[in-house]
Amino acid sequence: MSENCIFCKIVAGEIPSKKVYEDELVFAFHDIHPQRPVHILVIPKRHLASLQDATPADEPALGRLLAVANQLATEAGSSGGFRVIINNGEIGCQEVPHLHAHIVGGDQPVGPMLKRLD
Ligand code: AMP
Ligand code: ZN
């Protein structure tokens, strides 16, 4: 756990979240500001600031993260398709420095969901 990391605190139950899934490697919860009917965040439980910091030791959690993303998107009503978005670092417009995959979908095409770059 990294001190002052909001997502580590969510994993530890110190900050409330709308949890949708948890196992020994990953934790998933609804985004607090959903941008689509389905908007779930999936994170590794072990603090990892971004994908840029991943090492081979993180590969089991990263693989699980994608498998769980597919499972949760389908269960949440995105069986027709969805997006998995991972923002990385300042250039990648990442705001919370604990790796997270946005799972976005619903029953309509979700569009590119790009942030403004200016
Ligand atoms: P990013 O810009 O990729 O770092 O995305 C951060 C995401 O975390 C945003 O979509 C926020 O709405 C979401 N977020 C921030 N704080 C919380 C929280 N306490 N619970 C759930 N989602 C959060
Ligand atoms: Zn963290």
Describe this protein's structure.
The chain is an alpha+beta fold. It has one domain: HIT family, subunit A (2-Layer Sandwich), CATH 3.30.428.10. It is built from 2 helices and 5 strands. It has helices at 6-11, 59-75; strands at residues 19-22, 26-30, 38-44, 82-85, 101-105. The chain has a 5-stranded antiparallel sheet with strand order 1-2-3-5-4, covered by helices on one side. The relative contact order is 0.21. The model has no long low-confidence stretch (mean pLDDT 93).
The percentage of residues in β strands lies in 15-25%
Model regions low in confidence, pLDDT < 50 over at least 5 residues: none
Percent in helix: 10-25%
Q: How would you characterize the largest beta sheet?
A: 5 strands, antiparallel
Task: Tell me the series of helices and strands, N- to C-terminal.
Answer: HEEEHEE
Q: List the strand order in the largest sheet.
A: 1-2-3-5-4
User: What is the assigned CATH homologous superfamily?
Assistant: HIT-like
Number of domains: 1
Small-molecule binders here are:
adenosine monophosphate, zinc ion
Distance between the termini: 33 Å
Estimated structural class = alpha+beta
How do the helices and strands line up, and which of them pair or pack?
Elements: H1 6-11, E1 19-22, E2 26-30, E3 38-44, H2 59-75, E4 82-85, E5 101-105
Antiparallel strand pairs: 1-2, 2-3, 3-5, 4-5
Bound molecules: adenosine monophosphate and zinc ion.
